[in-house]
């Protein structure tokens, strides 16, 4: 493993990200382009994009220091940006959603705006500037876009009003059961939350997308192994794991609205014969799942493949290495 503190301090990348930049021979290049790509405000196109979305993916950290990824939903317009330094969200996680424990004034959060049917996505990390239990504002710390690569195209619809909460009780466990493993093994998409703390007590939370052929996440008991292929070389997620080996993942049953959230210890694998067992992988990362929350029917949203999605054309239409290395 690369020591996360082996490189001199530089902005906007933290030590874990810089360690991976150096590992792939991109340290100088990323130092040059980083300040141009990572902003401390939301450009107008991002502000308009967030305002048209029916859901956001969110990352928070609970009192135990465990990161969680989850989904907030609402009619388009439930998220809006009154100015380039602020995003206002008129929705909060359900009381039984582990995201809820990480929401309070001053808490750091990660947000991903992603539109599956157009395959657009933009990320925003920041700090809660206002919170009243029903809505919250996020002050922007870092804003940047991602390419559409590896996003499975799906059309959305609401099965009920997003204001109506489903009463099915959550299922909390300390390990994966057969139903959870089946959902993970059938998934072509998940989202991952990670975070880092700096020497001054500051925290940065990030949440990102991962996609691949169904089965691209290998499940061995409570351990998930994920291949990582060439991407934009930002290494936001993996850099966070290098610096702080924890991750929270959310898997969605897009047809039923079920949500599976897991959190656990994580590691990045840079040098192992096992990498070659995943076609096209440049590295792997693993999550040893310690906490599991399954929330049946939690989402009002449902998704279906559009007419031209790769899956609708058969598994042979997917490239061999279908996952982002970001």
UniProtKB/TrEMBL annotation:
Pfam families from the UniProt entry: PNPOx_N
Domain of life: Bacteria
Matches recorded under Gene3D superfamilies: Electron Transport, Fmn-binding Protein, Chain A (2.30.110.10)
Positions of the Pyridoxamine 5'-phosphate oxidase N-terminal domain: 176-278
Stated name of the protein: Pyridoxamine 5'-phosphate oxidase N-terminal domain-containing protein
